[in-house]
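Consider this:
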Amino acid sequence: MASLAEMRARIAAQENKTSNKGSNTQSDNSVYPHWNMDEGTTASLRFAPDGDPKNEFFWKEKQIIKLPFNGVKGYPDMKKVDVQVPCMEMYDESCPILAEVRPWYKDETLKEMANKYWKKRSYLFQGFVRQNPIGSDTTPANPIRRFVISPQIIPIIKSGLMDPEILELPTDYLKGLDFTIKKTSKGGYADYSTSNWSRRESALTEAEQAAIEAHGLFNLADFLPKKPSEAELRIIKEMFEASVEGQPYDPARWGQYYRPWGVDAPAGSTTQPATTAARVAPVAASSLPAWEEDVSAAEASFVSSPVVVPAAAPSSDKAQDILAMIRARQSKS
């Protein structure tokens, strides 16, 4: 992992780059659900380095896209569902969906639709829970927990790293810092804007150091969706076009690749649940903000590709007409 000075330089470079642009699952309890904290409570976390020494930071950014569908064929009780697919920009490659959607923002009448298909970000960390206000939460046998941090909290984490009064990496085993998540509410939604870094250095306890020695640290990249193959990218494009048209999700066509939570793989499918889909316990999506849905039960959207890849079915003419209309409108603006 990079030094604190190198990390600061990279964060500054990233922010400068952004400003210049203009603005299935098993319940192993390894992910700490801080969103289940009661309002007015705080949790104290101690972040640990990524197990991958090549990672420049001690977190990994996850980017997914939600494809909304009007129901599911064969599932009459499912009226509206979302299918989560990886955004290719997560792998530093061009994303075909965002390439299609990005120009929509130039048209006021298309902004709402553009927002619907824009990528959602979350951030994966690991470490220890030092103060836990969730009475129902129990520490697993491996006390090194994973944390899914929202876009609201990540700027606080980064700004603390840029503080010149912080002299050591917060993940340092001897001189690190705790991070306090504080849950309040604003406008009827959970608010974490008062979360902050501790100002007091502390060493890992003997028990925490022993846990790292016994279990090792996670490679956070292992918990990202696997990079889609060319065949899977064709399926993603096909689902995107069907979603734009307003079609229902079709398990027979896409279920062996990507599917919404609660939908079984098609009969005879050779696919197995992806590792990301087997690592996070399902949470009732209706009780979570959108970003938290993306990182809980929605993990089950990702399934591994089949051994034999059939040719992608042709896209619907109607979806192509809708996209063609949008493109024509953009070319005139």
In short: The beta strands are 42-47, 60-69, 81-86, 120-131, 145-149, 179-182, 184-186, 189-191, 196-197.
